């Protein structure tokens, strides 16, 4: 198909598509003349993935370039979950204060205690440490007992997500893993907020 | 205490504290002379809450001003959950395209089917609709059966959060509700990512 059809079918303007090609997110089409290139279904699929990561994950172009490079480099589902998570951040340097360092050690101890296999430098560890620091400053306890409902909810959902990844179809599997990481995270966040509102309404405004 | 002690105990610079006072996030101290004001424990508590919302929720000053106004206006836990959620966004206008409108209707139908009491204009509905649009574009089904694990995880966690809010201590209860909404959302997100990495490692890199 020509770029105009790719634009119609992806819902992205021709300028945006050309921008993605220049940025290395999308392979160029095959040139059929000096002024015309031909695009295939893989281009459309790639554009849908980029759009989802941009819109839902709110990921910058540089982060998407990393993810796309991992996909093109033949990374399996496992590596891709890691790549997507690094792209999701946080990517700021960890603060140097002692409260934060103590919280980060507690996170590592928690992950060990749960027996979870997660990279030692997974950004999610920093994210959790930052939440621990805030909870402690506000006087909330941070113990495994207190966190148990979150651990259980997270583990149940993750188990379901990874179980349904089709390991026999490598290309599909990688995309499924990415989507689970980015888009379903938003599903969980949105449902969590709605459920909180419902629980608060039932308890405080019966 | 003087502002220098408030600075030491909150870990915020004097400039930041003065900025929060100017922005209406923190009440001014009581003037004890032309150049000195006195601050109390309520100031320290408020600064800790502001810091948590800023650091963890990544909320802009305007959003925190709204939340703080709701706290000071005597809003109960139920209203505060709503106020915090509106502050968390999304606050962008909903896109006008038909896919999005269809997804938004599906979200409303889902919330009705679950029997959840959530405001008709809750931003979390828009957040969920955006995720639905992405999932559909990527060829993922969006059905109640498919979403069930997320619904269950969200409901379990929210139930736990609201159950532990101390309804007998109004001030504490409001802060607890806010923290549950903002900080524990980050706890859930971080644990979800770590659990995904673990599940992917067990399945694809045993």
TrEMBL record, chains A, B:
Keyword DNA-binding listed: yes
Domain HTH merR-type, residue spans: 1-70
SMART domains named in the record: HTH_MERR
PROSITE patterns noted in UniProt: HTH_MERR_2
Assigned keywords, A-Z: DNA-binding
Record-annotated membrane-spanning stretches: none
Family annotation (InterPro entries): DNA-bd_dom_put_sf, MerR-type_HTH_dom, MerR_fam
A GO MF term: DNA binding
Pfam family, one: MerR_1
Acyltransferase listed as a keyword: no
SUPFAM superfamilies recorded: Putative DNA-binding domain
Protein name: DNA-binding transcriptional MerR regulator
Organism field: Actinomadura algeriensis
């Amino acid at each position: 198909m020509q770029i105009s059809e790719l634009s119609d079918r992806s819902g992205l303007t021709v300028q945006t598509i050309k921008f993605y090609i220049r940025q290395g997110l999308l392979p160029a089409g095959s040139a059929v003349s000096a002024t015309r290139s031909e695009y295939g279904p893989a281009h459309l699929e790639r554009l849908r993935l980029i759009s989802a990561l941009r819109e839902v994950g709110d990921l910058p172009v540089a982060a998407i370039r990393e993810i796309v490079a991992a996909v093109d480099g033949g990374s399996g589902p496992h590596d891709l979950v890691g790549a997507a998570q690094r792209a999701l951040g946080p990517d700021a340097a960890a603060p140097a204060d002692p409260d934060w360092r103590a919280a980060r050690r507690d996170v590592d101890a928690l992950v060990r205690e749960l027996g979870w296999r997660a990279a030692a430098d997974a950004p999610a560890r920093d994210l959790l440490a930052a939440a621990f620091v805030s909870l402690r400053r506000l006087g909330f306890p941070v113990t495994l007992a207190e966190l148990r409902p979150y651990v259980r909810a997270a583990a149940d959902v993750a188990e379901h997500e990874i179980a349904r990844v089709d390991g026999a179809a490598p290309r599909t599997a990688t995309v499924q893993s990415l989507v689970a990481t980015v888009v379903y995270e938003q599903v969980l966040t949105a449902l969590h907020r709605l459920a909180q509102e419902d629980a608060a309404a039932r308890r405080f405004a019966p």
